């Protein structure tokens, strides 16, 4: 599902966003933002919460609208939000943008200072 600034949301992520929104008392409204890890490494991690939280709508899919801070909209360009769950739990994962390195947990990334060409 393609919406907003090129953010793609998988069907499993939409289902979990809807579930969490309904459970929290804000049906159909969720907020996503990127947090710095407060280190010199430059990692950014996703945080998903119920409500608008002073955000602007960036994606809508199957009954849920995803809001984000106005100043972060460009960071969501060409990303994919997914959700994986199993018997031991679950969590949201975000794809790695071009020119970035994925975090070991899959819920974050950091921009590379230099992109090398592979010949």
Describe the structure.
It is a single chain. With 119 residues, the protein is mainly beta. The chain has a single domain, classed as HesB-like domain (Hypothetical Protein Aq_1857, Chain: A, Sandwich), CATH 2.60.300. 12% of the residues lie in helices and 43% in strands. It contains 1 helix and 10 strands. The strands form 2 sheets. A 6-stranded mixed β-sheet has the order 5-6-3-4-10-9. The protein is globular, with a radius of gyration of 15 Å. Mean pLDDT is 82; it is low at 114-119.
Present the secondary structure layout.
Blueprint: E1 2-3, E2 7-9, H1 11-24, E3 29-36, E4 44-50, E5 56-61, E6 64-68, E7 80-86, E8 89-94, E9 100-102, E10 108-111
Parallel strand pairs: 2-7, 3-6
Antiparallel strand pairs: 1-2, 3-4, 4-10, 5-6, 7-8, 9-10
**Please, what is the CATH homologous superfamily?**
HesB-like domain
- The number of distinct helices, counting runs of at least 4 residues, comes to 1
Helical residues, percent: 10-25%
Number of domains: 1
Distance between the termini: 34 Å
Query: Spatial order of the strands in the main sheet?
Result: 5-6-3-4-10-9
Under the CATH scheme, which architecture would be assigned?
Answer: Sandwich
| CATH fold title | Hypothetical Protein Aq_1857, Chain: A
Radius of gyration: 15 Å
Question: What oligomeric arrangement do these chains adopt?
Answer: single chain
Structural shape: globular
Question: Count the strands?
Answer: 10
Q: In terms of structural class, how would the helical and strand content be classed?
A: mainly beta
């Amino acid at each position: 599902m393609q919406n907003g600034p090129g953010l793609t949301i998988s069907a499993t992520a939409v289902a979990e966003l809807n579930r969490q929104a309904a459970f929290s008392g804000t049906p159909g409204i969720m907020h996503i933002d990127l947090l710095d890890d407060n280190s010199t490494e430059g990692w950014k991690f996703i945080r998903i919460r119920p409500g608008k939280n002073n955000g602007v709508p960036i994606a809508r899919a199957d009954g849920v609208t995803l809001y984000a801070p106005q100043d972060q909209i460009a960071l969501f360009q060409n990303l994919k939000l997914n959700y994986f769950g199993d018997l031991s739990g679950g969590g949201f994962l975000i794809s790695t943008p071009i020119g970035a390195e994925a975090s070991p947990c899959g819920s974050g990334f950091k921009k590379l200072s230099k992109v090398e060409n592979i010949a």
